[in-house]
Amino acid sequence: MWPFAKKPAPEPSRRAQRVAPTSIKRPPLAARDVAANDGFDTRSAKEVEELSRGGRLVSQQRANELEDIATFADVPRFHRILSAGDQPIVEVPVDRRDRLVVIDSGGRNAVVIHAGVDAALLNSIVGSLRERNYSSSVARAASEVIRQIQQSRIKNEARGMARQQTPYVAAMHEWISYAVENRATDIHLEVRGSAGYVRFRIDGEMEPMRGDKQGKEEATFIEKCMSSLFNNEQAAKSGSDSMFERDQNLYCMVPYDEIPGHTLRLRFQSLKGNEGPKTVLRLLHVDENLPTLTFEQAGYEPSMVELWRQAMHTPSGAVLIAGVTGSGKSTTLKSFIELNPNTPSSNVLTVEDPVEYPIRGAHQVPIQRDLANPQESAKRFSEVISAFMRSDPDVVMVGEIRDRFSSNAAQQLAETGHMALGTVHAHLLSGIVPRLVNTEIGMSRAILTAPNMLTLLAYQALVPKLCKHCCLPASEIQGDHQVDMIVQILQQLNLPIERMRWKNPSGCSRCNGRGTAGLTVVAEMLMPDEEWLSPIRDGLDAKAVEVYRSRSDGDLTSPNMNGKTVFEHCLYKALNGLVDARNCSDFDTWPRFSRHHSHRRA
């Protein structure tokens, strides 16, 4: 991020007043942003004429009015200039570059700043930005301000070139850029003896970096890249230590905004190892202007979305999401808060270690737990929760429930009439209660099954979506024993397989040869009631599973997921050609599923 932080605007000099008296004295004009999906040329002639006089267009979807820019200090914080450089995003005629500049303010939001140009040029600029998936705003400023913006680019490019002379910084930038371009969720830097490797998790699967070297580097180079990032780039008060040590397990957060159009945080976690250290970087897209991911977009079916909505309108109790690491639990809780219609009128607090995503409508408190000193960590966490209880809360997100302190916090909030949000590392819906009552977390079944304690339980996982351009029917999959077995089982169950598709191992140009294109949620959900709570209270977990399963309609082709397992949700998506049915094996074996389903139908 270039350091153009807001500061109080100085009194304009007499010279500045002579340069642009109208930009300082003229009252702000009505403004209208141009959203990415709006066309500038769809506006009325009157609006276009207004824009040519220095007005701005404001989208009806987002009434974010920009004041006229009086001085350089008033320029919005920005990443880079989109209308300058060797490969500009938008082209500005040479004779207009002293009167118009386009800046990137993050999250694919552009601001067109001009000192009075014709409407046709503005129309062209905004149209070019829209074609490149940028939202646009238009503001007027003096030509002196535009000159200062252009000069700032030259200064920062010089600073960036000096920084890029470090080979470790340049390599990290290359790897992070590759990860963003290929939709990777994680970057793995590994040292194995004298060799180092760079790998990426893309669409849920690990793969080496493509290219001549296949991600292979010298071990010393990889290790210096790790230490350079940890020592020089970590956010203040986010790290477990100030200096990288190869024989320590270290973590920190690294803000990264060097990739145009993307604001990232990298969650850095290193591991000591017998042959050398390993570091995993989780890529977190944290731009506050990114739209909230809806439950439907994530992959939840309508019956599941209805359960989320019911939970939003329940004022108290615990909402818990289970899943393995990297299953999107934090993202789902973020969506739950931001989509909740009650959030604007509620006091929403979060305690996080660390804060990963900005959550609109929530006051987020970071804490740094010391893994080597659990007593001190517990004290920090307890202090925050005690402060929360004195802060008139409505909703509190306690993060991962992993010990007695976090479970006590969730219990205290739910028992006192507040809503507690949390995540649990548990496998399947049926594994949530056993996880919570184990000796590590220490909750009791009596407390968990008390009235109004549990509002909603969910288990979710992420599976790769098939590339729709190259996925294959079963007839084109040759010699795959698992595919043959699955097709045989589905035929025995009289299920339609005509729409099913399978991953193309060679992929195509659209999916970069991977055969997949993104991830989708598969899940199982339950709103606990007394019929389910009663066997849980008595330790009869298998009986509770039967209660849950009794609510299924038994139709594996139906989108109604009430009482259905995550295996069946994955199968439903496979029957509709969205995912590969082999992914169902992540949740159960096919023979066991076949026996259970046949037994239930009997």
Can you tag this structure with a few keywords?
Beta-Lactamase; 7-stranded mixed sheet; single chain; 19% strand; 4 domains; 7-stranded antiparallel sheet; disordered N terminus; Rossmann fold; 18 strands; 602 residues
Overall geometry: globular
Q: Average pLDDT value?
A: 85
Write down the CATH class of the largest domain: Alpha Beta
Q: What proportion strand?
A: 15-25%
Question: Separation of termini?
Answer: 63 Å
Structural class: alpha/beta
Which spans of ≥5 residues are poorly predicted at pLDDT below 50?
Answer: 1-64
Total count of strands = 18
Q: What's the architecture of the largest domain, going by CATH?
A: 3-Layer(aba) Sandwich
CATH topology of the largest domain: Rossmann fold
Give a nutshell description of this structure:
The chain contains 19 helices and 18 strands.
Write structural notes for this entry.
The chain is an alpha/beta fold and 602 residues long. It folds into four domains: 14-163, no CATH class; 167-285, Beta-Lactamase (2-Layer Sandwich), CATH 3.30.450; 295-461 and 520-551, P-loop containing nucleotide triphosphate hydrolases (Rossmann fold, 3-Layer(aba) Sandwich); 471-505 and 561-602, no CATH class. Helices cover 33% and strands 19% of the residues. It has 19 helices and 18 strands. It has helices at residues 14-19, 21-25, 45-52, 119-131, 143-164, 167-181, 219-233, 295-298, 302-312, 329-339, 374-389, 404-415, 432-436, 445-448, 481-492, 530-537, 541-549, 566-575, 590-601; strands spanning 80-81, 100-104, 109-114, 135-140, 184-192, 195-202, 205-208, 216-218, 251-256, 264-271, 278-285, 317-322, 348-352, 362-366, 395-400, 419-424, 454-466, 516-526. The strands form three sheets. Strands 5, 6, 7, 8, 9, 10 and 11 form a seven-stranded antiparallel β-sheet that branches. A seven-stranded mixed β-sheet has the order 14-13-15-16-12-17-18, with helices on both faces. Helix 3 packs across helix 4 (119-131), helix 6 crosses helix 7 (219-233) and helix 16 packs antiparallel against helix 17 (541-549). It starts with 13 loop residues before the first helix and ends with a helix. The model is unreliable at 1-64 (pLDDT under 50).
